């Protein structure tokens, strides 16, 4: 592999507590971009709180999309690189391109939905997706990586987060309705819920999904 390819290739790894200080500015950048694009209430000024980030890392939930291009004099804006795969090594000139949290237990806030999930089978949840602004297509890479590993995925995003809604829908996620997050005066508590799975729906699931799509 050439030096160029090595430096621009991306990979996925679990975050450790050593990454905490590098993760904080990524979420700060994401909050700033949300506010600039008319979505200031999804995360407000503080979400996710430092204790939430530490808890995600400690539980092995936080995943990082990284490259090793920090030492390059000129970093290509949109290089061609292979699909990122899981690789737990830390680059010597590493940059965080994106971050998200991955959970395999049922999400308590998804029990009640104004709408209907595609099914009630076990699922993986994606939370707290953020890009650092250092590379393009971060959210898409994270979703693609997750979709290659898990057949049933749920996620939610803000009512005004049209960019993330577009990314989810172009990656085959179905808009299932709205959910209510715990009351927090600093952020909005209504979120748009999405689900995607790669197995065929049975008849009852197809009918439920069709009814919801008509209602939406």
TrEMBL record:
GO molecular function: transferase activity
Keywords linked to the UniProt accession: Transferase
InterPro entries from the UniProt entry: Acyl_CoA_acyltransferase
Source domain of life: Bacteria
Record's protein name: Acetyltransferase
Protein species of origin: Bifidobacterium mellis
């Amino acid at each position: 592999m050439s030096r160029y390819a090595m430096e621009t290739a991306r990979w996925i790894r679990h975050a450790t507590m050593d990454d905490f200080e590098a993760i904080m500015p990524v979420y700060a950048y994401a909050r700033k971009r949300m506010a600039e694009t008319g979505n200031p209430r999804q995360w407000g000024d503080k979400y996710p709180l430092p204790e939430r980030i530490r808890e995600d890392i400690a539980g092995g939930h936080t995943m990082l999309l990284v490259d090793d291009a920090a030492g390059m004099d000129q970093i290509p804006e949109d290089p061609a690189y292979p699909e990122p795969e899981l690789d737990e090594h830390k680059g010597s000139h590493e940059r965080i391109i994106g971050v998200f949290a991955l959970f395999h237990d049922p999400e308590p806030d998804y029990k009640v939905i104004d709408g209907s999930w595609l099914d009630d089978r076990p699922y993986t949840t994606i939370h707290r997706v953020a890009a650092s602004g250092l590379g393009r297509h971060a959210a898409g890479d994270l979703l693609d990586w997750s979709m290659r590993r898990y057949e049933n995925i749920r996620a939610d995003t803000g009512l005004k987060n049209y960019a993330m809604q577009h990314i989810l829908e172009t990656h085959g996620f179905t808009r299932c309705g709205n959910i209510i997050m715990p009351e927090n005066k600093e952020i909005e508590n209504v979120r748009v819920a999405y689900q995607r799975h790669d197995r065929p729906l049975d008849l009852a699931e197809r009918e439920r999904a069709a009814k919801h799509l008509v209602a939406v």
